[in-house]
Design brief:
The chain has 435 residues and is of the alpha/beta class. It contains 16 helices and 13 strands. Bound molecules: uracil (URA).
Length: 435
């Protein structure tokens, strides 16, 4: 049998590995028999040489088999989940999941922390004082059964391989590989005992995937992995060139998600969250048509059912449900730095990558695996692409608790904004449906 270094060499030299090779790597790493440095070298070799679709499927299967699959046979159907490939200001899950659960969909959601410059649902939920993101399998199942929705991070029982690999990729420059993204997402989601899965594949500067054709390829790869396991998978390709909504940062995003659930959200965030909730409802076949699913999602947002569901979930997982109304109960930053427009014009671009990296610099994300998160920090935009501004008008504010990286973060945010004399062409938010 090859030594681990031989598998690293094989991948470095562009060879295709087998299912058995991936099982050895994944099981060995998860059991601490393979050190981080060897796994990091392997991931980088794969990142540079690419993995074939067969290898991506083998990796996803090995990662899935390494943990336990939830036996959801006593949880009612329809069981549908959603997952985003990661964006900046992407707090859609906090809105779409409770909306779908309020419609009678059972949503067993295993979710991750921030990755690279993109935020993670787990970190956002952890900004809620008291909220527990590590549920045991039986707690998780019971809550899905009783309330229709539970959130948990990967644990030593559920998706243990993704838990370790996800954190390692984040700090070794190996996040943006289609095969690694597909295996990470599908190994978590296929452990959930789902009937259907909706993917939000983000495209653009704030995403892990920059081009539409790459995004379509990723969507198709995940759909084919799902098909092998009898899970219906659909994917929306959505624009992630500028941040979604106005806020970037963990507690700030919980606040904006709460406002959106109360009908006071920005149009882009409200529109996308409603569409994703509707598609979850439709995939669960709780609606005859996508049009009636959209009406149902809008109704559940408008009549308060969706926010009540989120409050119930927060309370069940140990958090203070009042945070959805009283934002002073969330962690608050101590400093504010305003960035203003240098001249008159139209905002033609807000580079989401720069805004995401600035938020990470302030402490909203991690530079190394065990870095703590500062839940209070982030950026609030005052304007979005297409808005007209005058010289000196506030474009956004940075919220911080430690000034060390502030000048660099301000520089990034200033560079993120581009102004033009004429209004830019409007861009579509929802680009395509892949199924
Ligand atoms: N979301 C995940 O769960 N994993 C990735 O690798 C990227 C986004």
């Amino acid at each position: 049998m090859d030594r681990i270094v031989d598998l690293i060499r094989a991948k470095r030299d562009g060879e295709e590995l087998t299912q058995e090779d991936f099982e050895r790597l994944v099981n060995g790493y998860t059991r601490n028999e393979i050190p981080d440095y060897q796994m990091a070298a392997f991931l980088m070799a794969g990142y540079c040489n690419d993995f074939s679709d067969a290898e991506a499927t083998a990796l996803a299967t090995a990662m899935l088999n390494c943990g336990q699959r939830l036996d959801m046979s006593d949880v009612p159907t329809p069981r549908v989940d959603k997952h985003s490939t990661g964006g900046v200001g992407d707090k859609v899950t906090l809105i779409a999941a409770p909306t779908a659960a309020a419609a009678g969909i059972y949503v067993p959601m295993i979710t991750g922390r921030g990755l690279g410059h993109t935020g993670g649902t787990l970190d956002k939920l952890q900004s809620i004082p008291g909220f527990r993101t590590q549920l045991s399998m039986s707690e998780f199942k019971t809550q899905v059964k009783e309330l229709g929705l539970a959130f948990t991070g990967q644990t030593d029982e559920i998706s243990p391989a993704d838990k370790r690999l996800y954190a390692l990729r984040d700090v070794t420059g190996t996040v943006e590989s289609l095969a690694l993204i597909a295996a990470s997402i599908m190994s978590k989601k296929l452990a959930e005992g789902l009937g259907a899965l909706l993917l939000d594949v983000k495209v653009g500067r704030g995403s892990l995937i920059r081009g539409r054709s790459e995004a379509r390829k990723l969507a198709q790869l995940m759909i084919s992995i799902g098909r092998r396991m009898n899970v219906t998978v659909q994917a929306l390709l959505t624009d992630m060139d500028q941040p979604l909504g106005f806020t970037v940062g963990n507690a700030l995003e919980v606040m904006e998600a709460s406002q959106t659930l109360q009908g006071q959200g920005p149009p882009d965030l409200t529109g996308l969250s409603t569409e994703l909730a509707a598609r979850m409802i439709y995939l669960g076949q709780s609606s005859r048509s996508i049009e009636s699913a959209r009406d149902q999602a809008q109704q559940l947002l408008a009549d308060g059912s969706a926010i009540t569901k989120l409050r119930d979930i927060i309370a069940a997982q140990g958090g203070d449900p009042e945070v959805v109304y009283r934002f002073d109960l969330l962690p608050n930053a101590s400093g504010e730095q305003i960035v203003s427009s240098p001249r008159d014009g139209y905002i033609s671009r807000i580079n989401a990558d720069d805004i995401g990296r600035a938020a990470v610099m302030l402490g909203a994300g991690r530079d190394s695996m065990d870095d703590p998160i500062d839940p209070a920090v982030g950026v609030i935009l005052q304007s979005k692409v297409g808005d007209q501004v005058v010289a000196g008008q506030q474009l956004c504010a940075l919220y911080y608790t430690d000034e060390t990286n502030l000048p660099e973060a301000v520089q990034l945010v200033e560079d993120a904004f581009r102004l033009s004399v004429n209004p830019p062409e409007p861009r579509d938010l929802i680009l395509d449906l892949v199924q």
